[in-house]
Design brief:
2 domains, six-stranded parallel sheet
């Protein structure tokens, strides 16, 4: 066991990084002596988040193509070539048993070189609509672990494994937390609580909608846990202060997301893959507001996959300022609708996702 080595590559966003760390933790639980090396992109958030989780990471000098015209795009081919050469050196030096990619620029370079060298490879695709890196790699890698049905539209059915997305263990473990959560946020258990989250960076359309709806939220008797993200937190805090209501609370960032979920009766959220997977596991009635500029518009695809199963409501980003608060207040006053959403979304949760992915990694390892 001490000789087992794994490379996990990718990043760029929390939606890639947190599943990657969860997979690493799952491997460590199975093989405590295993060596795990992360490979990311220099200057991206994985270079900070991965060491904070206790793992070693090396960075490739690689960037993607800018969507708007930029002279930096002229450097992309040269950086890609350099990243491929550096990835090859890392693979020769580290000699991994399996290489795992979670999406992102670095992942493409590392997995491509691994396939050239005949090293077993696995891609973990978080979204219902894959990114360009994973689409390009699909024909070369050995396996693709996915979180949604119907992914044979993009990938070979023979390579697909429906595993789910890894979710932080403290969020998945919700049993018995509601009372603790209500005490943590100093909330009244006899009142409903609305949780609003737009990701760690916030979401302007959601924030502006909630800001305008604060009088209606208070009038409806709802309690509010509102993660605004950096940049809107001061505006929100000033607005909330005027209501002098301790049950209406704002946070730039909520560290104890497990407790925030446990306290909530309904949730407004972006539709990133990780957020959707968390909502399925915590079984909350939710309204999804997809970020419209996500690559390949994958957040809209993620949200639609739930809406089609009666497991969520969807409000477009362009409609959020005029419709979101109305939809949220209507859902808060309709216990039958909430119960139906909770039942439908609970059926989509995959609590054993990390174990499932680690099983597939082990199956790829040479005998």
């Amino acid at each position: 066991m001490s000789s087992y080595k794994f490379i996990i590559s990718g990043g760029g966003t929390g939606g890639h990084i947190f599943p990657a760390v969860a997979i690493a933790n799952g491997i460590k639980e199975r093989f405590p002596q295993a060596e795990i090396l992360f490979v990311g992109a220099k200057g991206r958030m994985e270079m900070e988040k991965v060491p904070a989780a206790g793992y070693e990471i090396v960075g490739l000098n690689i960037t993607g193509i800018q969507r708007s015209f930029s002279l930096k795009n002229l450097l992309v081919p040269f950086r890609l070539l350099g990243a491929l050469l550096e990835a090859g050196k890392i693979l020769r030096r580290f000699k991994p048993n399996v290489v795992i990619g979670v999406g992102g620029y670095a992942s493409g370079a590392v997995l491509y070189m691994a396939t050239l060298k005949g090293i077993p490879t696995l891609v973990q695709e978080q979204n219902s609509f894959p990114g360009i890196t994973n689409k390009l790699l699909a024909k070369r890698v050995n396996l693709l672990c996915v979180a949604y049905t119907g992914m044979d539209r993009f990938f070979s059915l023979a390579k697909l494994r429906l595993t789910g997305n890894p979710v932080r263990q403290e969020i998945a473990a919700q049993a018995g937390k509601r009372e603790i959560a209500l005490k943590h946020f100093s909330l009244d258990p006899s009142r409903q609580t609305l949780l609003v989250i737009g990701g760690s960076l916030g979401a302007r359309s959601i924030n502006e909608s909630i800001l305008a709806a604060l009088p209606s939220i208070q009038k409806a008797g709802l309690q509010l846990i509102w993660q605004t993200g950096n940049g809107f937190d001061v505006t929100a805090a000033e607005a909330v202060r005027a209501f002098n209501d301790p049950a209406i609370q704002t946070f730039a960032f909520i560290k104890e997301m497990d407790l925030a979920y446990a306290a909530a009766d309904l949730v407004v959220s972006r539709a990133g893959a990780l957020a959707v997977s968390e909502l399925c596991l915590v079984r909350k009635a939710c309204i999804l507001v997809p970020y419209p500029f996500a690559s390949e518009d994958h957040q809209t695809h993620n949200a639609q996959s739930l809406v089609e199963k009666g497991a969520a409501l969807l409000v477009t980003d362009s409609d959020a300022r005029t419709k979101l608060a109305e939809v949220a207040l209507a859902l808060a006053s309709d216990p039958v609708k909430r119960a139906g959403l909770e039942q439908a979304i609970a059926a989509l949760g995959m609590p054993d996702a990390t174990k499932n992915i680690v099983d597939e990694v082990i199956n790829l390892m040479p005998a």
